[in-house]
User: What shape does this take?
Amino acid sequence: MAYIFEEITIRTDNSILGIERINALWNDVNNGRLAVLFDSEGNLEKNCENCTFPIACYSNYENDDKGMYNVSIKKVDSKFFADMEDLVTYGKYVRYKSSSYDIETAMEEAWSMVKEDSKNGVIKRAFLTDYENNVLAEFTSNKKARCYLYISVL
Assistant: This one.
């Protein structure tokens, strides 16, 4: 009998080892070793009537981005993104977007924007719950990978 996890969570930090743990978790999800996008028998979950998308949820920050925090990978539907855009409009979150020919560069650029805006006082991060959605290049019309970040702000 096949199964699919609703959510997978690790506790980590922004050290080199911590980032390696996050990357390994994503690789395991994307390759079907962890049954989030694929079921336990390796079949891609397809329900285009109610399509779901993988996101990373960053939460339970020990203090800020220098301490420990949880990273959860889970699936959301398109309503999640509409709800997040409402929260951006209300000033609860700031959205960052980056695109590149590879997902790693898109992710690095998006997080660099967050760090730069934090450093320059453009945003004051709340460190409550932040979200990341990555779209691989093969799933975009212009063949560029995209990274979307929703950062909670005060």
Remarks:
- The CA atoms of residues 17 and 23 lie 10 Å apart.
- The longest strand covers residues 69-77.
- Residues 103-119 form the longest helix (17 residues).
